[in-house]
Each structure stands twice: as structure tokens, then as C-alpha cells.
Amino acid sequence: MSVQPVHHHSPAGEERVPRTADGIVGALSPAWRMEFYRELGTAPLDQAEAVLRRWWCEAMLDTDPDGDRITAAALDGTLPLAGVSSVLARRQARGLPVE
Fold this sequence. Notes:
The protein contains five helices and two strands. It is mainly alpha-helical.
């Protein structure tokens, strides 16, 4: 398994999509919004955070300024890849969560 490294940096602590339900909803298309609400509304309380985390990732991908370029490169087979172990090591070195 491999992943695409992402190097977007937001100004001083700002995130493109706030890590809140309202932030996620604001970044999703209407069709995805309804799916988000359905999934969050039916999630057991102990799974709500995981649902929010998953949909925040979707919202970040959907609002990525390089999204079209990355999609085209993936479809063309020219997308540069990095191994999961190197991504996890980089995140750990930066003090970011890896779970």
C-alpha cells in the first residue's frame, strides 16, 4: 500500500476545513452533506468521533486546490507515491497523530 504525500500549509494554525461538524458540512457538496448527516446521525456515540474524522478527511480532499491535478495524475499513473512507513515516520517526527 502506498499514499500520495501532501504538502499543503495553511496560514498560522488555520485549516482549510475546520475540524467541526459545521466546518465539514460547509465544505461538502449537498449530496455528500446528506450522507454525512445520515452517517453521523446513525452512529453510536462511541463511533461519532471516527465518523467526524473520516468526513473531515473527505472534506479536505474535496477542497484540495490541487485535487484535479492529483486526480488526473492518479488516473494517468504518474502520481508520485510514498510508502506508508515513511509517511508514518514523517508524521511521528512532526509530533502528529498516526492512528
